From TrEMBL:
Native source organism of the sequence: Algoriphagus zhangzhouensis
Keyword match Repeat: yes
TPR repeat placement: 184-217, 250-283, 284-317, 318-351
Keyword Repressor in annotation: no
Membrane spanning stretches: none
Designated name of the protein: Tetratricopeptide repeat-containing protein
InterPro entries the UniProt entry points to: TPR-like_helical_dom_sf, TPR_rpt, Ycf3
Keywords: Repeat, TPR repeat
Amino acid sequence: MRLIFLGIIFLIAGYSFAQDRSDFEKAVATYNQGDYESAYLMMDDWLRVYSRDPQGYFYLGQIYEQFDGPSLNLALENYQKALSLDPELAEAYLARGRLYLRLKRFQDAENDFLSYRQIPKGETTQIIYRKSSTDKGVSGIFTAQSPNPSQILYHLALAKIGMEDYAGAKTLLDSAIYYTPNESDFWAEKGHVEMKQNQTENALKSLHQAVEINPDHFLARQRINILEKGENVDQLEELTLAIAKDPEDPQGWKIRGFYKFSQNDWEGAIEDYTEAIQILPEDSEGWFYRAKAYAKLKNWEAAEADFEEVIFINEQDPEALLGRGQSRYYLNRPEEALADFIQLIAIDPSNPSAYYHRGITLYRLDKSQEACDDLNKALEFGMPGIEEIQKKICGEN
C-alpha cells in the first residue's frame, strides 16, 4: 500500500512539473514572437518557482536586452546567473559575448567567444538569431550545435576589431570565409579591416565581393564609395538614395550623419542623427554622435543632455562619461566634471585621457599636487602633446 501511495505522489509531481514546463515553453514562444513584456512576466513567474534553472535566467537575459536604459546591465546579471548554475551553457557565453560587444568590453567578449568554442554544445535546439547592420530584423539563424565555426570566428573578429588588433581580425575573417565563402558580412568586415590597415586595393576586392554576394549591402557599398570616390557630392547622393530606399532604417541616417560630420557639417550631421534617434531611440550611437556634433558647435548644454542619454542606455560607456565630463567642465561645473572623470578612471584605469581631464579639473579646483600626479599618469600612459601644461602645473608645486 505504501509503495502505491509513493507511486501516486511521484506521478502527481511529474505531472505538475510537466505542466510547469509547458509554462516555460510558452514564455519562450512568447519571446520568439516578439511580445517581450508578456515574455518577461511569464519568465519571471517561472524563476520564482524554479530559481535554479539556468535556461530561465538565459532567456530572461535575452528578454532584458530588448528593453531600454539599464536593462542591458540586468541582462548581463542574468547571463552571469545562468553560467554560475551551468558553467557549460554554451549559448549563454555567446549571448553574453555579444552583449559585451555592445558595451564595448571587447576583451570580455573575446573571452566568452573562446569559451563558447571550447564547450560541448549539448542537445539543446536553441536558435540564435543573426543580425546584420545592413538588414532590418533578422538576417539569418544558426544553432549552437552547428559544426560550421564561421559565425563564432566572425564574432571573434569583431572583438579583435574593437581591440584594434586588425591583423588578428583579418586572420579570423579569412577562416570564417573559408568555411562560409558566400556570407557578405564576412567580406564587408574583411574590407573594413583592410581599410584600417591602409590596404586599399585589397579592401576594394573584399568589399566588391560583399556587394557581389549581396548587392544591397549598405556598408560595403559606402566603404567602396569612400575608397573609390573620396569625399564628394556623389557619395552624399549615394547616401541620400540609400535613405530614400528605406527611410525607416536608422542606419542610413547615421551613416550620412557620419559623412557630414567628416566634412565638418555639424548642423547637417545633427539633423541626420536626430532622424536616427527618432526611429530607434534605444540605440546609443545616434545620441553619442549627435552629442559630439553639438560639442563641435560648443553647444555644451545640448552635448551634455545627449551624453546623458548614452549613459542612461549604457551607464559604463567610457566615451560618453568623458564627453559628459568635458561638457560639464566647459559649463563651469568642475565638481560634476570631476565626478565623471573619477568614474571613468574606475572603469578604465589605464585611460590617459581620463587622467589628463581629471588633472586639469583638479587644477581648476586648486588641487595642484593631485593635478600634477594625474598629468604624470597621463604621460606615463602615452598621452601626447601635454608636456607644456604638465610642466606648468607641476612646476607650481
